């Protein structure tokens, strides 16, 4: 379940790349090239202007945790984790684990996909990392 605030938050981190595919949106500094996620207007290094930057979607699991007790609106158990993206930023997101697949662990290569959820009037997409 995502309220309006949650919907706006997702719009800040999910966008489209040049080919129109869904992607995670970070920021890239015009002056020093620093990449940050999520997007922010000013670079924390030199206060240069940052532009929206489509992340590749490829990364490596830094840490994974099985959630056994879910908050309201979610069904446990499910995996979440930190993923170190190819661009050098760390993203926290759900991890998809196929039936019978080994548990995710540090060093696993993953790729982001976008899952739709919500009811008929409020549909959203959220990033979920899949093992490659
Ligand atoms: Zn900068």
Please describe what this structure looks like:
The structure is a single chain. This protein has 132 residues and is mostly beta strands. The protein has one domain. Helix content is 8%, strand content 47%. The protein is built from 1 helix and 9 strands, in the order αβββββββββ. It has one helix at residues 4-13, and strands spanning 14-16, 22-29, 35-36, 50-54, 58-67, 78-85, 90-96, 109-118, 123-131. It has a 5-stranded mixed beta barrel with strand order 5-6-7-9-8. Strand 1 (14-16) and strand 2 (22-29) form a beta hairpin. The longest helix has 10 residues, at 4-13. The protein is globular, with a radius of gyration of 16 Å. The mean pLDDT is 90. It binds zinc ion. Zinc ion (ZN) is lined by residues 29, 31-32, 34, 43, 45-46, 48.
Entry summary:
With 132 residues, this protein is mainly beta. The chain has one domain (4-131). 8% of the residues lie in helices and 47% in strands.
Distance between the termini: 28 Å
Order of helices and strands: HEEEEEEEEE
Query: Strand fraction band?
Result: over 45%
| Total separate domains | 1
**How are strands sequenced across the largest beta sheet?**
5-6-7-9-8
Question: Which regions contain 5 or more consecutive residues with pLDDT less than 50?
Answer: none
**Helical content class:** under 10%
According to DSSP, the number of beta strands is 9
- Mean pLDDT, as a whole number? 90
Q: What is the overall shape? A: globular
The count of helical stretches stands at: 1
Q: Assign the structural class, choosing from mainly alpha, mainly beta, alpha/beta, alpha+beta, or little secondary structure.
A: mainly beta
Radius of gyration: 16 Å
Ligand inventory reads: zinc ion
The description of the largest β-sheet is: 5 strands, mixed, barrel
